[in-house]
From TrEMBL:
Residues 129-156 are annotated as: Disordered. This is Uncharacterized protein. The chain crosses the membrane at residues 9-26, 32-50. Keywords: Membrane, Transmembrane, Transmembrane helix. The keyword Transmembrane helix applies.
């Protein structure tokens, strides 16, 4: 994982601004065809937009990606919807992904759309985790109606989250 701080992000942004300035000087000082200059401007601008979206994930912002199939629940923050402010609400969930029956070292935060049943499920899971019962989460696609799956409309990639207690370690017999 790349450790980024605010000052490093500032320096990287300044480097891209310098690149844009050098491109401007290059475009004004050369006699290249206009389409080459326009292509360079589009290329640098597109690269800057790509860089900004990638840095958002590296800098610790919540991921809008799907949750991993198996994870350890660490914490959750509930931002309840407010119709007066036209705010849909969100649930921010901190998890450690489980791969090969081991939790990864670094946690990741995910942003999920607010749902009251998910709020109560995660709230109960956090309470159990605070009581010392580590919570293992799994995700699976929501079950739809019967019939052929390719005839049904898309499900917006919504998944169902299930939480369970981490099984206690079994001690060997004496």
């Amino acid at each position: 994982m790349i450790a980024t701080t605010t000052s490093e992000l500032l320096w990287l942004s300044l480097a891209y601004a310098l690149l844009g300035f050098l491109l401007l000087i290059l475009c004004l000082a050369t006699r290249w065809a206009w389409w080459i200059k326009a292509g360079l401007v589009v290329l640098v601008s597109g690269f800057y937009l790509l860089h900004a979206s990638v840095l958002r994930g590296i800098a610790g912002w919540p991921a809008d990606d799907q949750l991993p199939p198996r994870f350890v629940l660490l914490s959750a923050v509930f931002d309840e919807p407010s119709p007066a402010r036209h705010h849909a609400g969100a649930i921010y969930i901190w998890v450690n992904e489980i791969k090969d029956h081991e939790a990864l070292d670094l946690p990741r935060v995910y942003r999920l759309p607010y749902a009251k049943d998910l709020h109560s499920l995660l709230g109960d899971g956090i309470k159990k985790a605070r009581d010392g019962n580590t919570q293992i989460g799994t995700t699976e696609p929501r079950r739809g109606q019967g019939g052929l799956p390719w005839l049904r409309p898309g499900s917006d990639d919504k998944v169902q989250i299930k939480l369970s207690d981490l099984p206690r370690a079994q001690l060997p017999e004496k």
